[in-house]
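Retry 2 of 3 after timeout on previous attempt. Resubmitting C-alpha cells to design endpoint.
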C-alpha cells in the first residue's frame, strides 16, 4: 500500500482487458479547467446518468462515458479507486451528487474513498463525505470467484463458502 492508498489491479475478464488500446483511457481531469472543458462537451442526456471514473495511481481522476469499461478508462493500468460518479451544477459550481466504488473489473475496496476525495479536491469539485453507494467485494477462498456482499451476508453465491471480512480480491497486492 502506498501513501495514497492500496493500488487495485484489473481482475475482470481478460477479453475486456485485451481490448484496451495503447495510449487510450478516460479523459484526464487534473485541474478545474480540465473538468470545465470535459463537462461542457457532455450532452444533457449524458448528464442525467453517472459516468465511469478511475483514480490512477498518480492520484488523478479520469472520466469516461458510463458504459465504458473501467479498464479502458484506466488505460489498462492499476488504480487507486474506480466506480461510477454523477455531477450536478449548483449555484456557481459543479459538484458530485453520487459516487460509488462499483467496478467489477477492479473490485476496489470501500477504503478507497480517500483517493477519490483527494482527486476531487485537487480539481476543486464539491463532494460528499463518502461513497453514496458502497459495494463490498470479496474473493471466495474456496472457489476463487469474485462476489458482491449484500446485506452483510459474507457467503459465496457460487459455492456457499464463507467470505472473509477483510478485502481480499487481488491476492497480489
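Retry 2 succeeded. Sequence:
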Amino acid at each position: 500500500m502506498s501513501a495514497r492508498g492500496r493500488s487495485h489491479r484489473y481482475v475482470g475478464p481478460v477479453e475486456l482487458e485485451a481490448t484496451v488500446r495503447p495510449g487510450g483511457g478516460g479523459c484526464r481531469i487534473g485541474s478545474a479547467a480540465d473538468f470545465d472543458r470535459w463537462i461542457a462537451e457532455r450532452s444533457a442526456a449524458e448528464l442525467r446518468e453517472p459516468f465511469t471514473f478511475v483514480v490512477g495511481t498518480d492520484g488523478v481522476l479520469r472520466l469516461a462515458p458510463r458504459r465504458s469499461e473501467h479498464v479502458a478508462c484506466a488505460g489498462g493500468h492499476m488504480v487507486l479507486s474506480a466506480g461510477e460518479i454523477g455531477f450536478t451544477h449548483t449555484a456557481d459550481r459543479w459538484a458530485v451528487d453520487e459516487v460509488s466504488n462499483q467496478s467489477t473489473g477492479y473490485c476496489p475496496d470501500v477504503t478507497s474513498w480517500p483517493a477519490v476525495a483527494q482527486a476531487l479536491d485537487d480539481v476543486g469539485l464539491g463532494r460528499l463525505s463518502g461513497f453514496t453507494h458502497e459495494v463490498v467485494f470479496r474473493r471466495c477462498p474456496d472457489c476463487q470467484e469474485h462476489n458482491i456482499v449484500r446485506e452483510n451476508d459474507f457467503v459465496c453465491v457460487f459455492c456457499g463458502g464463507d467470505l472473509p471480512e477483510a478485502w481480499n480480491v487481488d491476492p497480489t497486492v
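Attempt log closed. Strands lie at 27-29, 51-56, 61-64, 79-90, 93-100, 136-139, 146-149.
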